[in-house]
Amino acid sequence: MTFGFKILSTPIYTGENMDSKEEGNGSKSVEIKVLFFARARDLTGMTHMPLEVSQGTTAHDCLNRLIVKFPGLEEIRNCMVLALNEEYAPGSTVVKDRDELAIIPPISGG
């Protein structure tokens, strides 16, 4: 009687957070969803986008990366607020995998 075993390349769960991805330099990365509102939407031409960052990245760090990608955002940098998962958040807040970071410029209307 012969038993056929197939070796799988699927990683075995080790109890570590499997949500984070491994970057080439050995550090873990997380993916967040960035939401653009009002003028930020106009300047980027997008309503939302994914953003992959290193574990430990702050909301402010994410904003800096977005300004590199969309230089027009510099125009509203000093008057926007950031929200993380539908709560206003300081720029020093660390983002986690699957967080939603909203870029909210001033909105006027009447």
TrEMBL record:
Gene3D superfamilies given in the database record: 3.10.20.30
1-thioglycine sites (modified residues): 110
Entry PTM: C-terminal thiocarboxylation occurs in 2 steps, it is first acyl-adenylated (-COAMP) via the hesA/moeB/thiF part of MOCS3, then thiocarboxylated (-COSH) via the rhodanese domain of MOCS3.
Gene Ontology MF: a single term: nucleotide binding
Pfam families linked: ThiS (PF02597)
UniProt entry keywords in alphabetical sequence: Cytoplasm, Molybdenum cofactor biosynthesis, Nucleotide-binding, Phosphoprotein
SUPFAM superfamilies cross-referenced by the UniProt entry: MoaD/ThiS
Keyword rRNA processing among UniProt keywords: no
Entry keyword Translocase: no
Pathway where it operates: Cofactor biosynthesis; molybdopterin biosynthesis
InterPro entries with a match to the protein in the record: Beta-grasp_dom_sf, MOCS2A, MOCS2A_euk, Mopterin_synth/thiamin_S_b, ThiS/MoaD-like
GO BP, one annotated term: Mo-molybdopterin cofactor biosynthetic process
Gene Ontology cellular-component annotations: molybdopterin synthase complex
Predominant cellular place of this UniProt entry's protein: cytoplasm
Annotated transmembrane regions: none
Compartments, record wording: Cytoplasm
Modified residues (Glycyl adenylate): 110
CDD domains for the chain: Ubl_MoaD (cd00754)
Summary of subunit composition and partner proteins: Heterotetramer; composed of 2 small (MOCS2A) and 2 large (MOCS2B) subunits.
Stated family: Belongs to the MoaD family. MOCS2A subfamily.
Free-text function comment from the UniProt entry: Acts as a sulfur carrier required for molybdopterin biosynthesis. Component of the molybdopterin synthase complex that catalyzes the conversion of precursor Z into molybdopterin by mediating the incorporation of 2 sulfur atoms into precursor Z to generate a dithiolene group. In the complex, serves as sulfur donor by being thiocarboxylated (-COSH) at its C-terminus by MOCS3. After interaction with MOCS2B, the sulfur is then transferred to precursor Z to form molybdopterin.
HAMAP family per the UniProt record, alphabetical: MOCS2A
Protein name as catalogued: Molybdopterin synthase sulfur carrier subunit
